[in-house]
C-alpha cells in the first residue's frame, strides 16, 4: 500500500444493538457536547465544517511557507468565534463552554489559525471587554467581532517573559496624549494588527493598557516579523520597538490601572489556550487512528495490534481528562468563579497531556510521522508553542503552588 495520504475508510463501529459508535465515542466518550444548546452546537459544528472544508486542505502550504493566510479572515469571521462569549457588541454571546469548544475546533484544524484567534479574541477583545469603559467597548468591539479590525496585545518584552510583571515599557503623559517608549517581543499579530493594546508603566509606576490604533502607519512604531520558527509558522509574531508613539489620552483602557488588571485578561486568555491544546490532541489522535486503520503491516492493519490499541486508548483517555478539566473551568467562568489559578491548572494539564498525545501519534506513524502530508507533524510542532505561550508549564505550576501553599515562589 502506498504511504501517500489516502481517504480514511469507514471503520467498523457497529454496536451490538446495531447502532453506530459515531463521533460521540470518538473523542467525546462522556457526551460533553450535551452541555451545549442547539444554537451553540450549530456554531461549534460550523467552526468544524469550515476548518474541514477550507483550513485543513490549505494549512500545509502556509505552514511550510511561513505565510500568514489573510485570505482566511472572511471565513474565520463568518464562524463568529471572535469574542464568542461576549454579550452584545455584535458578538455571538454563547457560554464559555461553547466558546471553548469552538476554539478547540480551530486548533483541531490548524494551530496558526487558532493562535490568531487566541490573540485577536482571547487577548485583544478580552482586554477591551474586561477593562474598557462603555464608550471604548462600543468604539472597538463591533468591528473586531466582524474581524474588520484585527487586534493584538503587546505585553511580553525582550527581557521580560515569565517575569513580565517587571515590564519596562513606559507611558508618559504629554497634554492630551500618552507617549509610549520601549520594546515588545513575541507579539502575535503585531505586524498586521489594526489595534494593539500596549501594556506600559505610567509616570506614577502604575500599569496600564494603551490602545494604539493603525499602528503600522504610526510614527515611532516599528514591527519586525520574527523568523526561523518551527511552530505556528502560519501566524506571525513580531518584535516591536516603540519610540515616542503617541496615543490619545482616551485610548488608555479605563479599567487598566494595575498588574492585577492585566491578570484578569491573562486568566481569560489562558482558558482559550487550554482549549487549544485539547484541539491539537484531538487532531493528532484522529490522524493516528486514521493511519492505524489503513496502514497494513505484516498482513493486517496496524489497528489490530495490541500495542497500537493500547496507545490509542491512552490517547483518548488523556483527551477525555482534558475535556473534563476544560469544561469545568469554563463552567466556573460562566458562573463568574474562574480564577487565574483555575486557568493555570487547566492549561498546565492540557498542554502537558496534549504533548504526550501528539508524541504518541507521531511515533505511531513511524517515518511518515515527520511528514506534513499526514497533518500529525504539524500539530506535533505547533503544540510546542502552545506549551509555552501564555505562561510556560513551570509558571502555571507555580501559580497552582502559590494557591495551595499560600506562599509565592516567584521571587
Automatic annotation (TrEMBL):
List, for all copies, the residue spans of the domain called Acyl-CoA dehydrogenase/oxidase N-terminal.
37-148
- What are the record keywords, sorted? FAD, Flavoprotein, Oxidoreductase
State its cofactor: FAD
Q: Tell me one GO biological process term.
A: fatty acid beta-oxidation
Stated EC number for the protein is: 1.3.8.6
Q: Which family does it belong to?
A: Belongs to the acyl-CoA dehydrogenase family.
Q: Which InterPro entries match?
A: ACX4-like, Acyl-CoA_DH_CS, Acyl-CoA_Oxase/DH_mid-dom, Acyl-CoA_Oxase/DH_mid-dom_sf, AcylCo_DH-like_C, AcylCo_DH/oxidase_C, AcylCoA_DH/ox_N, AcylCoA_DH/ox_N_sf
Which stretches of sequence are listed as region Disordered? 1-20
Q: Which residues are in the Acyl-CoA dehydrogenase/oxidase C-terminal domain?
A: 263-404
- The protein depicted here goes by the name Glutaryl-CoA dehydrogenase
Q: Where are the transmembrane segments?
A: none
Q: Provide the species name.
A: Serinicoccus hydrothermalis
A molecular function (GO) held by this record is: flavin adenine dinucleotide binding
Amino acid at each position: 500500500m502506498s504511504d501517500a495520504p489516502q481517504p480514511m475508510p469507514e471503520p467498523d463501529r457497529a454496536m451490538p444493538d446495531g447502532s453506530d459508535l459515531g463521533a460521540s465515542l470518538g473523542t467525546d466518550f462522556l457526551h460533553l457536547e450535551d452541555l451545549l444548546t442547539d444554537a451553540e452546537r450549530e456554531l461549534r459544528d460550523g467552526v468544524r465544517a469550515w476548518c474541514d472544508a477550507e483550513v485543513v486542505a490549505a494549512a500545509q502550504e502556509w505552514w511550510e511557507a511561513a505565510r500568514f493566510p489573510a485570505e482566511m479572515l472572511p471565513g474565520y469571521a463568518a464562524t463568529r468565534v471572535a469574542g464568542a462569549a461576549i454579550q452584545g457588541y455584535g458578538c455571538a454571546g454563547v457560554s464559555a463552554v461553547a466558546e471553548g469548544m469552538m476554539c478547540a475546533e480551530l486548533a483541531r484544524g490548524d494551530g496558526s489559525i487558532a493562535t490568531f484567534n487566541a490573540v485577536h479574541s482571547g487577548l485583544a477583545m478580552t482586554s477591551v471587554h474586561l477593562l474598557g469603559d462603555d464608550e471604548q467597548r462600543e468604539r472597538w468591539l463591533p468591528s473586531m467581532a466582524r474581524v474588520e479590525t484585527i487586534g493584538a496585545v503587546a505585553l511580553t518584552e525582550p527581557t521580560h517573559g515569565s517575569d513580565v510583571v517587571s515590564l519596562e515599557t513606559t507611558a508618559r503623559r504629554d497634554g492630551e496624549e500618552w507617549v509610549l517608549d520601549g520594546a515588545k517581543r513575541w507579539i502575535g499579530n503585531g505586524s498586521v494588527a489594526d489595534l494593539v493594546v500596549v501594556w506600559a508603566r505610567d509616570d506614577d509606576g502604575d500599569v496600564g493598557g494603551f490602545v494604539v490604533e493603525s499602528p503600522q502607519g504610526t510614527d515611532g512604531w516599528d514591527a519586525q516579523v520574527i523568523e526561523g520558527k518551527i511552530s505556528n509558522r502560519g501566524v506571525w509574531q513580531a518584535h516591536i520597538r516603540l519610540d515616542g508613539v503617541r496615543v490619545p489620552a482616551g485610548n488608555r483602557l479605563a479599567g487598566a490601572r494595575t498588574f492585577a488588571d492585566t491578570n484578569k485578561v491573562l486568566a481569560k486568555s489562558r482558558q482559550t489556550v487550554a482549549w487549544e491544546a485539547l484541539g491539537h490532541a484531538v487532531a493528532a489522535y484522529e490522524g493516528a487512528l486514521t493511519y492505524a486503520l489503513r496502514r497494513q503491516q505484516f498482513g493486517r492493519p496496524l489497528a489490530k495490534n495490541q500495542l497500537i490499541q493500547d496507545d490509542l486508548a491512552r490517547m483518548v483517555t488523556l483527551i477525555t481528562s482534558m475535556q473534563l478539566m476544560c469544561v469545568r473551568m469554563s463552567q466556573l467562568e460562566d458562573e463568574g468563579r474562574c480564577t487565574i489559578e483555575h486557568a493555570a491548572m487547566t492549561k498546565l494539564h492540557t498542554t502537558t497531556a496534549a504533548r504526550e498525545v501528539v508524541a504518541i501519534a507521531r511515533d505511531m506513524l513511524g517515518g511518515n510521522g515527520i511528514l506534513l502530508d499526514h497533518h500529525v507533524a504539524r500539530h506535533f510542532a505547533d503544540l510546542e508553542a502552545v506549551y509555552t505561550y501564555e505562561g510556560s508549564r513551570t509558571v502555571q505550576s507555580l501559580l497552582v503552588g502559590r494557591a495551595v501553599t499560600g506562599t509565592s515562589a516567584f521571587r
